[in-house]
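To make this tangible, this section ends with a sequence with its structure tokens:
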Amino acid sequence: MASQEHESVLDLSSLSLNLFAEQEVVPRAKIFARFVSDLIADAAVSVYTLASIGEHDAWVPRATVGEAKIHEEEIPGNSGLLGMVLEEAEPVNRLAGQVKREDYPHVDIRKSPVSLTYLPMIHKEQLLGVLEILAFEEEITYEAITALMPAVDVAAAAIAGAQAYEEERNGTMASITRLTQLYDLEKVFSSTLEMDELLPLIGTKFSGILECEAVNIWLLLPDESVELMHQAGEDATSFKGQKLKANEGVAGTISDNGEPVCIGDADDPRLAERNQQVGEKGVKSLIAAAIMDKSALVGVVEAANKLDGTAFDEDDLFTLTSLAETASTALHNASLLLAERKVEVLETLNTVSHEITSTLNLERMLQTIVNAPQAVIPYERAALVLEQNGRFKLSAVTGLTQVQSDHPDIAPLNEILQWAALSEEVIHVKQHGEEIDGEREETRAKFRKYFAESGMRGFYSRPLNDDTGRVGLLAMESSDPDFLGPAHLEIIEVLAGQATVALRNAQMYKEVPFISVLEPVLVKKRKFMAMQKRKRAAILLACGLGLLFLVACPLPLRVDGDASVAPVRRALVQPEVEGVIAKVYVREGEHVQRGQALAEMEAWNFRSALAAAEAKYETAMLNMNKALAANDGTEAGVQRVQADYWKAEVERAKQLLEKTQLRSPIDGVVATPHVEDFAGRKLEQGDSFAEVVNTSEAIVDLAVDDTDAGMLKTGQKAVVKLNSYPTRTFHGEVAVVSPKGTVLKDGAVFYARVAVPNEQGAIRAGMEGRGKVRIGWYPSGYVFFRRPFLWMYAKMWYWLGW
């Protein structure tokens, strides 16, 4: 060692270069251990770093050179002579007569050392690690230790820098991981607007990330109290449906002041009050935060009892607050959808009630009852059975204007309805897998067969009774066994009551006017037979000629209806990023093409960000290539992650730069006055820059009665006369026939979308008038008497049922 002392001093510069060429702790520790091993013949050299594991200190082996093995990943801080170094931070040297096996129990060697040396690695008066030397050939003297100390100091500084680098890198990776988790959570929460699906998602994700026993989600009610809408896990101190007023309990207090709460002491008065009814099963640690959407309170989320038994801390509260911010928008949107659906339910019930009570037309009433509620009740098929002279007749089925009970698709339904009509009770049968929940074996057997034939999995029927007896039966079914919830059952109960009264009135009215219809016919017949024979012959001849005209002479058939001009196609040009308009390329009234740039925003900051991202990406790629060249897989992997991250940032910067170009989404004309004055004006994201309209073609909606809708086809010629142009007739073609009808006060209509050329822009949205669609040439009798004939045919079909 003494002969190499001068050599080691000369090699400190190369040692420093080699150490600082690496960035991580382990490579630098290996370089230092190899450096010391080269100075001492036949020795085992190890480098340890000091780490805090929980509440205790431990030595972590970083590098070993020589004939020694260390199997433990963490060595207790008080182990052997390492404990003396931890306490005194001074060099320790034991010669052969002083060395005991208990001094180095963590080292596995096959021969006895002649000396055992520990040199503390101190940087800025802080113990970072220790250098361990087991010499097997020549004892290490204190002079040799003194000569080694400068190298130890250099290595300590290098390892301190490596530790700082790794902490910074790990912190960055943790931040990226956290952002990725929040982004994934936001995507998951935004995947549904159904409150019943969203709340379990939020509860499961929150409890998984926070690693707690229970998560409670309280939502704000109109009276400013909060109700526990969902509970993930087990919390004996609260239950679903529980309500708290403002300033009552933890959730009620947060709903009032919005301040997050972290309670780590099980003896806290707030927890004591909450746990007084449950004892040992109570909450021992709790964090809670408000769920805010912008400045509006949506609800409160609580997390109770960590799974590892420790108390929540401020870091956990910060995590919960961040998660609540992620979920707030999704919960707010879901609550809006829920409120909108309630309004829709009330509007639908009001519409159905108005429809079935404003008419005594039985057929129209039946169609309304089986079709209209589908907007708020998720059934696939509804059917209505009427009682007629002690027998039950299938009278209406969803989607069918005429019902043939012996049709292969309808016969199984008719059979099950005839059986259900015999019961005075509500029947609700569901099939989950192979199990059918029915009260009687007969019911289960019957529906097992019916479900197999029809493909349905849920069936519900309710008898329609009034004070005078049975009116009929209302039934609904779906392939989803759980298609009806409590709210749907309440709607059906209300609908059934309204339908019972309306159907009874229509049946009674239908029975009365039959005699009054035949009596005028008999009167006319008596008058005709009282005429002179010649006069009767003349009338018969005229009728014959008229009949011949009606049969042999063709006339053009047209169907007409109210016409209204649909809004022209228009689009708003809005910036996707905020900024100042630098250049405007168009003026009002100028024709533009889809994708054409209308204006450009100042983008120096986006170009700067793009350049910075590209530079960092190139730097990361260069570092990765250097690491690969140095055969350092660990560093190469780290740089590869950095390169991927900055590559994504480059793409994002390019997208942001592209968004500074304001482009037209459609072909059309710029309709914004003085659009050139926007130059130099700052626009926020979502502000309107310009409006582009396409007026080259107008779409006129022609409302055709459902009795004529079957003759409509695309390509048919049409004419339109608008109230705004009483002397002009506009010609066009039927472009689309709406596949779905709309119920108006006079009955159901289907819309024929007529495309009308509008090069001069005379036709404007909102104009009204009348329109006709040319169907073709038909016998004049069919043209004149088509509607009465169809009405009579429908009546005859209803009476005879062929």
